Amino acid sequence: MEHGNYTVVTELVLLGLTQNHEVQMILFFFFLLFYMIILPGNILIILTIWGDPQLGSPMYFFLANLAFLDICYCSVTSPKMLADFFSDRKTISYSACIAQLFFLHFLGAAEAFLLMVMAYDRYVAICKPLHYTRLVNRRVCCVLVGVTWSGGFIHGIILLGLSIHLLLCGPNILDNFFCDVHQLVKLACDNYFVHYTSPNLLHCPGVVIVMCITLLLISYTVLLLKLRTQSSKAKNKVASTCVSHIIVVFVMCAPAVYIYGLPFQVVPMEKFVAVFHTVIFPLTNPRIYTLCNKEIKSSMWRLLSKCVLRCGKSKTNI
Asked: pTM of the full predicted structure?
């Protein structure tokens, strides 16, 4: 398709993680095994929280939404990456590339905002326990979750609107396994939107993630300082919850800051960090929350026991 003196790119070539066929097969089976173990675990977390009335507190409601968001987030790039391990020429259409970029930042921003909501929930529970049921009731929880999705959608739409104005005129090779904003800017022609739009396009994800991690660290610092006035039993329970939240914040936000914090510089090991940011960490986040939570672990075992008993009865009847 001609556009002035340029040939507009309609298909992009992805170099993937590696060009070595043997390494590609090893990575394929590693990621496949990872999904077979971790993905059902996240689905189990959602089913456990939704099916157990004892887990009706806002914290578990937000955790179920986080697990769902993580499943959606890692599904944006992973299926294409796994399929490309068996392709000699890894290609993606321009429209699919733009869609991948939109959903990646839509879901990623929604998750960052949800982590902020979860920090607010812990703040109210620890600092204002007498007002907790009024400030964080079911209606408020639904509104907060809706705000996180809306905020992520707005962020994705902004990046989408800026990205579609970039005129790609070659080369059409992306040195990665998925499409992202800074890679598209590198392929863009020398036009008005590169000079005036690309700085906003590149800095937008970095600003969002830095703002989120700053607010999260401040809120959890306040919570940890508040623990000094709590009893020893309350300290242990709250500390374990806050520590798991802080681990997830670093696990999710640190790679994003590494990738998007310096958009105009070449980032070493960008592919390696991107794999953990888009594939590994999202599925492990909900598991981190449940490691120190006895209530949800016991509820999960009860659910699994019921499923095993039902399977046994059905086989017996057959």
From this structure: 0.84
